[in-house]
Amino acid sequence: MRKTLISRSFHSHLLFRCPQPPCPCSSGSFYPHLRPQPRAMKLDTAPIFGSHSRWFFTTHIPPEWIEPFYNLSDVASNQQPQASPWVNQILKLLDGSMNMDSNLDSYCSRFLIKLSPNFVAFVLKSDHVREKPAIAFRFFRWAGKQKSYIHKIECYVSLIDVLSLSSDFDRIRCVFGEFKEKGFLMTVSAANSLIRSFGAVGMVEELLWVWRRMKENGIEPSLYTYNFLLNGLVNSLFIESAERVFEVMEGGKIVPDVVSYNTMIKGYCKAGNTKKAMEKFTVMEARNVEPDKITYLTLIQASYSEGNFDLCLHLYLEMEEMGLEIPPHAYSLVIGGLCKDGRTVEGYRVFENMNRKGCKANVAIYTALIDAYGKSGNVNEAINLLERMKSEGLEPDDVTHGVIVNGLCRGGRLDDAIDYFEFCKANGLVVNAMFYSSLIDGLGKAGRVDEAEKFFEEMVERGCPWDSYCYNALIDALAKSGKIEEALVLFKRMENEGCDQTVYTYTILISGLFREHRNEEALKLWDLMIDKGITPTAASFRALSHGLCLSGKVARACKILDELAPMGVIPETAFEDMINVLCKAGRNVQACKLADGIVDRGREVPGRVRTILINALRKAGNADLAMKLMHSKIGIGYDRMGSIKRRVKFRVLVES
Question: pLDDT (tens digit, 9 = 90+) per residue, 498-523?
């Protein structure tokens, strides 16, 4: 009887079922038609002799390597492979917690499983892990510690792909260093994936190593490989290298496709060379490679960035002509560019065309149009667009409300602007510095300086910090109303608050000081601006030169103009402005002397200076002198005294 029991017990241990995941599916089991059948396994047995000479048996069950898919050899060939239920169980354990590694150990030990390299690569490619690079890296490291486990090339490639999405350069270099040490035989799919990953993050050195390894392993690059390589070089701004690769493609068996051309066009645009991008676009069409919406969108984006709104419109019209789908962003750029250029009617026409084609405008497009109408003085149309925007279910943002206030201020409807501003505040809308800047500027220009100051102080009370625009608007209002001392106090306060004093700030004050005949203070402020490294503009020099010319210091203005040339500041209309202001002030003698000085120094041709002086005299209401100059050889003719030929000076006009 005893022998029978022992025998049954012993044989029951020898036969066991393969491990199964503990979590059943909705039907109560994991794909029962695919469940592996119970099978006998040979177990290691070892007798141990006790003090009572009884036989005891111990068993050692080795863990089983699991794959990401079932073995479907017995299933119809047209059935898609189904992921193993183990995949979801392992993914649940990848939670990034402190105990993640130990949880994986416990789970695999409990169910006597080990994860195969194919399983690890599959998990690393899953959407669950692709968005969590730190977890992917930890899982990769954990898997590598399994007994008798060796990572395959696919494991490294999948992990590098995940890490590249988050630009984790340190970990990428670490993993790739191990990859190179392993000496894997490169495959086409691995090479394509690595080149794409390294190209996306601009790791050119690693990218070229993979390219060389491909060649060494006798792998011929495909069109995809070339395009991934081009993209990597372009993303790192290795434009010349990309050009050489492109030339190889043009002269080889694998010719560039639309993606290749788009990549090169993108590279030229990123490098700021829109001209070359357009040349590549022309070549593309000549070689019968049809551009797609990506081609046009890239070129429209580059043209918009350079302020070439005519080209934006031209490219958009070409897309329409070709019947290409126009992305909403392309509409936004074209309409925004035309509105910036003051071509509101053309912008509105594109907007209506967009609606006819069933493409709904977004808040940014409506805001651009509202702003354009407001700046052109058509505030009513701007408000109509705002109402239309709301009727289409779009909620105006703070920028939209801001441009409405700005438009009302520009149109002189200050009370309406204040009412709209108060309406925004009462309804809990975000009121930012743009609102206040528009109101302060509008009230200041209308001479309502006290109200402008009230809004300026209110900003801080509402937790809205002062910026350069607000300061400049109030300083301008104070300076133009004759309150130059208050403007200077505000200028000092601006510095103490750490707010940037711009070239416009200095221009306002220099102009204001000259109006108050405080010329030396104006010149000191100019020197302070230069010392602070603020580059003057044509407008700032105009303010300075006008003040100096009207105070009789024309030579000083010319000297300062000479000093600007090494700084790269050469106002094209500087002399014209100076002659105009002198003629307007009735200082014709000084205007003629300045004209002679310009010609004598070779800064302008006599004919152009003569035209400038004629126009300046005519604008100043001195038609007689203008006609006299026009019908004489003054400035362009010559008098001969013996053998000496001398140009007739402009000063003859006022001396005769």
Answer: 899 999 999 999 999 999 999 999 99
Per DSSP, 502 falls in state -
Longest dimension (CA), the chain: 152
Asked if residue 396 lies in contact with residue 428, where contact means CB atoms within 8 angstroms, the answer is no
Contact 351, 383 (CB under 8 A): no
Q: What is the distance between the alpha carbons of residues 599 and 610, in angstroms, rounded to a whole number?
A: 10
Question: What is d(CA 656, CA 652) in angstroms, rounded to the nearest whole number?
Answer: 6
Exposure of 291 in the CB half-sphere (CA atoms within 13 A): 30
The residue type found at 320 is: E
Helix 606-619 to helix 588-600 angle (10° resolution) is 160
- The encoded tokens of residue 280 equal 């590549």
Q: How far apart are the first and last CA of the chain?
A: 149
- How big, in percent rounded to 5, are the helix, strand and coil portions of the chain? 65, 5, 30
pLDDT < 70 positions in the chain: 1-60, 71-80, 603-605, 635, 637-645, 655-656
Distance CA 466, CA 455 (A): 11
CA pair distance 318, 210, nearest whole angstrom: 40
Closest CA to 224 of 247, 254, 198, 250: 254
> pLDDT of 300-317, one tens digit each?
999 999 999 999 999 999
